[in-house]
Amino acid sequence: MGHIVVKNLFKTYVTTINGKENPICVYDDFNLSVEKGEFLTIFGPNGCGKTTLLTIIAGLIGPDKGTVKIGEKSPAEADVGFIFQNFDDSLFPWRTTLQNLSFPLEVRGMPKKEAIKKAKGFIKETGLTNLTGLENSYPYQLSGGLQQLVAVARALIYKPDVLLMDEPFGSLDFQTRLFLQDKLLGIWKKTEVTIIFVSHEINEAIYLGNRMVLLSKRPARIKEVIHNNLPSPRSQSIMTTVEFLELKRKALSIFTEEMNL
User: What CA–CA distance (Å, rounded) separates 204 from 127?
Assistant: First the structure.
């Protein structure tokens, strides 16, 4: 049995158009299993329910029917880190880099001085050399990429059961996006946390994941699971290899068929 198990998931939203209720079925008996320590990426059409799936796994909203288990825990009982699309609101503007990193430890009862020391050690331990010298900087003094790097580190510093990432690099420029992809893979290798990463960029979804789940249009189902056996550690140059391009061709073929493109 997987570390994260989504079983018989049903979810419907009701919208009102011209005074008439309009039910939208997002999931209809959906199932997913994610192994412990896995890096799973999810790719699918706009509006198919990718964000909804993450918010249900996080326990932020409940399913209409079905169950979600993280280990033996419910989402409400598990330690779940969640990084949203908009990183502007993910850090406390009145706290420095170190203070932002130490915050999850402090709210779990660790004394402030010990939490700050742990945050310094985490920067060194995970190879986040880009943050060296910026420990006392406030978010507004950091670039968008470095703000998101701090947000990722803060979500991982207390070693959550799982980290959910909802298109976290989507608003960043191309170069910063590549930089953060490699940093994320490095941190994941060191922490071995289970990650579910939603992406709308096909190269990113293939590059990061052990497996890539391709979702259909609503009501979402798993159209295909693509296993990624590309060598690790990876570098961006792998995207030019025959093996990578074949995975991309396969994924795009399935996606365009689903979208009738």
Answer: 21
CATH class for the region spanning 4-259:
alpha beta
Q: pTM of the full predicted structure?
A: 0.92
Cβ contact 33:57 at 8 Å: no
Residue 107, token pair as written in the block:
């709210």
Whole-angstrom Cα Rg for the chain: 19
Segments in 10-71 forming alpha helices (H): 50-57
Tens of pLDDT along 22-67? 889 999 999 999 999 999 999 999 999 999 999 999 999 999 999 9
Reading the block at residue 99, the tokens are 């203070």
Is the bond preceding residue 233 a cis peptide, omega within 30 degrees? yes
Kindly list the strands in the beta sheet with 39-43, ordered across the sheet, starting from the edge strand earlier in the chain: 80-83, 162-166, 194-198, 39-43, 211-215, 222-227
d(CA 8, CA 208): 27
Cα distance between residue 167 and residue 169, in whole Å: 6
CA distance 47 to 214: 13
Biggest CA–CA distance in the chain, Å, is 57
Peptide bond into 219 cis (omega under 30): yes
Task: Answer whether 69's CB lies under 8 Å from 151's CB.
Answer: no
